[in-house]
Write a structure and sequence with these properties.
The protein has 107 residues and is of the alpha+beta class. It is 37% helix and 33% strand. It has a 5-stranded mixed beta sheet with strand order 3-4-2-1-5, with helices on one face.
Length: 107
Amino acid sequence: MTQVTARLIDGRCVLRLEGHAEGSSAVCNMISGLVCTLAGWMANHPEECRVLRCEVSADRPGYALLEAEGGRDTEQAFAFVLLGLMQLERQHPKLIRVEEINFFPEK
């Protein structure tokens, strides 16, 4: 199972993933695609996003840690990817678990 933790605290966005969606290469690929898209956005938008950490590596399969700050655009980029991960959790609750803290306070 992939464990996802997402936090938005004082303008700092953190997304941490650990583990594999074992039994479904499709779900694993979708998770990887979402995370790599966010990492790419962070790298390509330095004017909107100050990267604090970006750990996505083939050397540590099943692990990623993305951390950044930069205001509304950065928060929205993280929230967009988080929504995708939450949708995967709804469709495949045995393969991915998402814990979200402060991204969507109206929940």
